[in-house]
Amino acid sequence: MVMKTSGFIEGSFPDELERVLRSVGSELGDVVDDMEALQVVPLKGAMTNEVFRIIWPTKCGNLNRNILVRIYGEGVDAFFNRDNEIKTFECMSKHGQGPRLLGRFADGRIEEFIHARTLSAADLRDHEISALVAAKMREFHDLEMPGPRTILLWNRMREWLVQAKSMCSAKDVKEFCLDSLENEINMLEKELSHDHLDIGFCHNDLQYGNIMLDEETRSITLIDYEYASFNPVAYDIANHFCEMVANYHSETPHILDYIKYPGVQPVIFSCP
Question: Where does the record place a coiled coil (predicted)?
């Protein structure tokens, strides 16, 4: 099913979504039982999904509840297992990480609305914010999550390579050197697999759009766990560093500016 978001924004909800919304409303207890009273606000910043803020009036007059509706992007299930992502989402909620899962429907889900702002590309290079993100990453990596602590990185890359080759023409396969990538993956796995690697639960997609900051409490929340899994912690940190050179909301989102890659800076101590 393809969600017609224009009608959705106007308040015309698909039947399944309306049923789930009514169920969520019943759980909330204090919201009005009138779907036409809901305000739908599209949110920017999501890369693979469409995300909407639902402003739901309560029975207490001028008070409102806020929830978030996430519509899954088409074709993204080729890159991860949606059922596993939902299980991760639920486990994260139990650990007090991220928003709570309020409801599910075929093409999306309803989540708790977090009153925080999504970071921008420039925010990743702010020293204070970067330190907050680092502390949250450490907390994330130390989470006790179910499942074997096996590295997913290498097999996932191989699976994505198979997907890419199946979707590309022979010309594209040659232009992007896809036939040689498997050997490179094998070489990297051999060179970078060591017994002393710190394995933790990694986000694996720490670009700025998946990091939220509460301006009042200065607390960080990591969202969107589609790619989360056990991996070397060093990989998650390296991936985050690579995201510092990207700006997905520019005119050239595919071009990475490696001048912005973080470097080693000396720490200057002042004498008392």
Answer: 171-198
